[in-house]
Amino acid sequence: MLAWGQNLDGQLGIGLPNDRDIPVPSSLPAGVTTTQVAAGSSHSLALTDTGQVLAWGNNFAGQLGTGNFSPSTVPVYVMLPEDTVVTSIAAGSFHSLAVTDTGQVLAWGFNGQGQLGNGTNVPRSNLPVDVLLDPGVVVTGIAAGDSHSLAVTATGEALAWGANGFGQLGDGTNDPSNVPVDVLLPPGVVVTGLAGGFAHSLAVTATGEALAWASTKPGNSATRPTRTAIPPSWWIPIRASSSPRWRPVRHTAWR
């Protein structure tokens, strides 16, 4: 695993807080193989081939999930519940998410806007907590924005929780939520993937379309997905305009 750039908080995982302008190897534990990585504002995550999660960098909100608030300049293991196997990870600015092989979502770190989704307003957690999914809901993918979180279910629905001042939850309101709420997708839409920006959200559908919701300033946002390429006055996902020659297959977002 390679990392480069700013390293003030040890987020490169090289054992020193020095910036690097070229890729350098992170200091993984001996024998560990990583399959996914994710980056927050100043912390990093990696998923191993055995379903464990490593974290390093800033830890003021517990976003490393180690049971303390001490930063780390090298990868350390997230303290997952016993027998947990993680299949996917995501990082917000100061919070972290993981999907397990049973379709449950775990979250840890900053919770000032309810982005941990556990139904509390406790400001931070340094250990993974369960996101409060409805009974029977199985999550297959996750994404994180600055202070909001997203999940796609096995049935192609989208869930969101956390900050919502710009309509980034896509539920038609500007109210934050500390539990998952349904994104108000257009009728018949099946979501296959999600991405979270600083204060907006994106989705890819089963037909290869892209949806987007929220905007750059309060009061001028789409808070629910729609089929128009021009943001309407209500806040729901909108379809992104695209050429019929191009089909999105992977996506990510920040600002």
From TrEMBL:
One Pfam assignment: WD40_RLD
Ranges where the RCC1-like domain occurs: 2-219
The organism's place on the tree of life at top rank: Bacteria
Keywords linked to the UniProt accession: Repeat
Record InterPro entries: RCC1-like_dom, RCC1/BLIP-II, Reg_chr_condens, Ub_ligase/GEF_domain
PANTHER family xref list: OS09G0560450 PROTEIN (PTHR22870:SF408), REGULATOR OF CHROMOSOME CONDENSATION (PTHR22870)
Protein name per its UniProtKB record: RCC1-like domain-containing protein
Organism: Natronosporangium hydrolyticum
